[in-house]
Amino acid sequence: MRNIKFDTHCHIFDSDILNTGSRLLVKLLHLDNLVNLLDYTKIDKNFVEKIKDIAEFLDICSKDSKDIFLDIQTRYPEKLALVPLMADFTFAAAKNDTHENDFFKKIESFVNKIFNHYHNSKGKQSIENQNLIKELDTHWTKFSRSYNHYSNKKSRIPNVFSKNGFERQKKELEEIKSTPEYKDFIYPFLMLDPRHQRKNNFNIMEMVRATFPNGKCNKFAGIKLYTPMGYSPTDPILFDKNGVYDFCQTHNIPITIHSSCGGFATLLNEVKVTGKIYDNKQDKVYDFDGTYKFKTTIIHHKLEAIEERGSVLNHPKIWKFVMEKYKNLK
Fold first, then answer.
1. Would you say the C-alpha torsion 304, 305, 310, 311 has a positive or negative sign?
2. Which residues in 73-180 belong to E strands, given as ranges?
3. Is residue 124 part of a domain?
4. Which of 129, 163, 267, 329 could cross-link to 93 by cystine, CB 3.0-4.6 Å?
């Protein structure tokens, strides 16, 4: 096989999975900061660039997994092998969770302010600024179309926070990997969340053994863990004998983990955790089995809340226990 370059961290979620997820990520793209910067007497280059970034993001999210896979390939000067990492929003928020609803209402409020700014400011631009207006109109059309695409699917939001969204995503990646012309250019990682076993009567190890028959990487190249979603790296389903780490070490199956306090995290204000967590004030790791209540909320504290969840559930000092017990994990 000829030398192929790899993109080792990408995402190719389909439009239904990102129906909710993309709007959460728009919030993390500082849509509120854009609103705070609005100047109702002019449209400047900064505003145009922000709209362009968000419009392109939402436009990509409206495609299905295969189209996103093919779209990514067009972004590089040569064909790459992609390593898409699954995401699992199943437990990102509780069904009918008020915080989730507040989240969407706030995003809609931001978007309404941006719409008003666009329409109120267009007529106030100088003749010299008309090129900027033309550029903005191009991005605005895409932004409006993509945002309306998601707004019209509100009734489908509960399906994203369900086991069905996870299974659909897994199936689509398997289908792309099974396509002869693509199989050498995609190496997806299966995302695991131990809460599926407790809440959905879903045996994690049965799925792992079925996905990696006889310990062989078949359609998936490895496993992805994202503990800030609401669980500990030492959850017994992962950590105990005959669990996920044990299986992966025995069969040399690689694991990739989210390794920062940024990115995304559970929207919930409290989560049921079994395993070790980190106490930042005391700078220590301790065992925990119960409901952990965060001091911050995503809707009010934004990135500070994501950092808290990352620290409590994903601190390197917790992962040290994993590496000491399973010294040969890849």
1. positive
2. 81-84
3. yes
4. 267
